[in-house]
């Protein structure tokens, strides 16, 4: 397996994971709260929905851990998000079937635009790694392979506060994969987010 992309990306991933803590501490000590009333607490988001690739539909789930980084403008906030996702694709026929399982780790910048007291729109841009496996063939003759490469996510969505610590939302995303699974997929995710 070629580990050159991994050696290049690991320092970047480490830096991306350390930035939210440093930025959150600096912003909270200077302002206390953000323009839209957020206090910078960690939030856990759970996403589920279909993922579409080359005429096939998979099932995708994702967990997001997010925090406020800084207030960019009166109506624009920057959040840092670490996403861990999983997708399962399955294609079956009477004499042949194929399955693909992918796990993704994607640090993401989230630009949040509050449009009302309990409603916010957002846009995501992130890049990370995926790994997984593919299995294909018939009952009597099967083959499998490991999958590895880069994954990007560009998405837009909306979140609605339904309780002080709970948000519900929806997201439409485009996910380019590079490497062994060379596809660009589309996701339609439904989400619940909880303040930790």
Structure description:
With 196 residues, this protein is mostly beta strands. It has one domain (4-195): Porin (Beta Barrel), CATH 2.40.160. Helices cover 14% and strands 68% of the residues. The protein contains 1 helix and 8 strands. The protein has one helix at residues 4-31, and strands at 43-53, 56-73, 76-92, 97-116, 119-137, 142-163, 166-179, 184-195. The chain has an 8-stranded antiparallel beta barrel with strand order 1-2-3-4-5-6-7-8. Strand 1 (43-53) and strand 2 form a beta hairpin. The longest helix has 28 residues, at 4-31. It is elongated.
Q: Do you know the CATH architecture?
A: Beta Barrel
- As a percent range, the share of strand residues is over 45%
User: What's the helical proportion of residues?
Assistant: 10-25%
Counting DSSP H or I runs of 4 or more residues, the number of helices is 1
> Could you give the distance between the termini?
39 Å
Unreliable segments of 5+ consecutive residues: 1-31
Number of strands: 8
How do the SSEs run, as a string of H and E?
HEEEEEEEE
Mass-distribution shape: elongated
CATH class category: Mainly Beta
CATH topology: Porin
Mean pLDDT: 85
How many separate structural domains? 1
Sketch the major β-sheet.
8 strands, antiparallel, barrel
Radius of gyration: 19 Å
Strand order of the largest sheet: 1-2-3-4-5-6-7-8
Structural class: mainly beta
